[in-house]
Every structure is written in structure tokens, then in C-alpha cells.
Amino acid sequence: MTKSPLAIYSGDRVLVEQGDTANEYYDKSRFGMLLENGKLQLSLLEALYLTEKGKIDLLNKRNKQIPSELFLKKAQRYEPKFWIRYAVFKDLRNRGYIVKTALKFGADFRVYDRGIKPGEDHAKWIVFPVHESAVLTWYEFSAKNRVAHSTKKRLLLGIVDDEGDCTYYECKWTRP
Hints:
Layout: E1 6-10, E2 13-16, H1 20-29, E3 33-34, E4 40-42, H2 44-52, E5 57-59, H3 68-78, H4 82-94, E6 98-101, E7 109-112, E8 125-131, H5 138-150, E9 154-160, E10 166-171
Parallel strand pairs: 1-5, 8-9
Antiparallel strand pairs: 1-2, 2-4, 3-4, 6-7, 7-8, 9-10
Helix pairs in contact: 2-3, 2-4
């Protein structure tokens, strides 16, 4: 039985120790970003996902293990919409999609079609996670659609209910 790699939580990111497992997470599944020092930098979303899957051992700066429930609370303090975003991230990852940040596009995530890795081709969707009770004005909806259209991606709204289940709606421009 192989030991899970150690991952140190620090603020808004998690660093995984240098090694074959860290490289494998990046090479095979495109988790995180490889740094020059050989460590793997994970987002809080990726770290929680890998922790829940038992793939990494998440530690604080004092080398004490952080349970996933406590880590979720810490992440929610740092980012109020973390749980909604995580529900969509986790659901898409469980379905076999590679999910990366899309901040430069003005969206939460960019999602690659199954079997496609970042760098091999462009993302197919940009995703906006929202809670089912959230109100989205026509102006906000139009802005999201405009972002998708200008980046040549499809708009995917990830609607999350109170149980964490996700429903997706793909939206696109049409000309009459």
C-alpha cells in the first residue's frame, strides 16, 4: 500500500511535496500547476477533492493532519462561495472532465471535453456555478453569455441544490 503524498495547506493554496505521485497527478489528470522547484501547487478545490478521494494527506504548517470537514470550513472563510463552486468542481471531475480556473475569461471554470488535456486543445465550456435559490438578472445572464461567445466557448450554468446535486444548462447565442 503506497503512502499518500504530503500536502501543506497555506492560505489560498496547497503545496504537494516533490515526487512521482505529484508529477502523476499533474501529467495524467492535470491537477494543479507544477512549480519550478518540482512541487505541485493545488487550488483549494483540487486539494479538497484529492483529500476526499484519499489521494493526499493534507497538513497544516505544523505538520498536523487537517480533516476534510475542517479544511472545508477554512476554505469557506477564505472564499464565501466555495461550497457551491466545489459541488460543481467535484461533480464535473467525477464525470471525467478536467476542470481548471477561468478567471482570465471572467468565469469560474473552464472545462475540457473528456480525453482532452489543457494544452492539447481549447476548453469546450466556461462554467458559472450558482445555487438554485440565487437570482440572476437578464443583464448578468447576458454578460455571462457574452463572455462565452467572445471566448469561443459554450456557456454552462451549474445549478447546485441544497443537497449538493448539480444540474447543468448549456446556453448559446442563436441568430433568428
